[in-house]
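Category: protein sequence paired with discrete backbone structure
Discipline: computational structural biology
Format: plain text, a pair of labelled lines
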Amino acid sequence: MNSSFSAPVGLPELSSALPDAAQRVVRLLRERGHSGHVVMLAETGKTSAEAAAGLGCEVAQIAKSILFRRLDDDAPVLVVASGANRVDERKVAAQVGAIGRADAKFVREKTGYAIGGVCPIGHAVEPLTLIDADLLALDSLWAAAGHPHAVFNLSPDELLMLTGAAASDVALRELA
């Protein structure tokens, strides 16, 4: 998996200088059969546009992790969406129950990651996870690797396998 991947030009290779959370992601990825290759962006990847600019890829290829809080039991609900899409909270709620926004404290407590670096795997509390079906149409994705500057490359099939989640319609579709 990803054995032929090479870092985009200008990005540093994996090193022991990775932040602790990114090193933890490397170990988790390797345990699950992924190459574990993590790159550090020179600029923050907190937004999909910033990450795409730093990687030289399309915004749609950014697999952004958005955490919600299920209202009836405070369970974390992770939506991994295409960077080009806004998440339709009504569609998510229809699948998992009423949800609310998660603040920075909730995100850190439930995932173990800071906002902007939430990886799709390795959470402190296992979330209910939904994968944006629009990601399946792409060949290559980039996801956060535990730190706002750290990312890793994967295929849509790898994302499904790593998370154990199914793809679903979570994208907001604006009426023309």
Summary: Helices lie at 20-31, 48-55, 89-96, 104-111, 156-163. The first helix runs from residue 20 to 31. The chain has a mean pLDDT of 90.
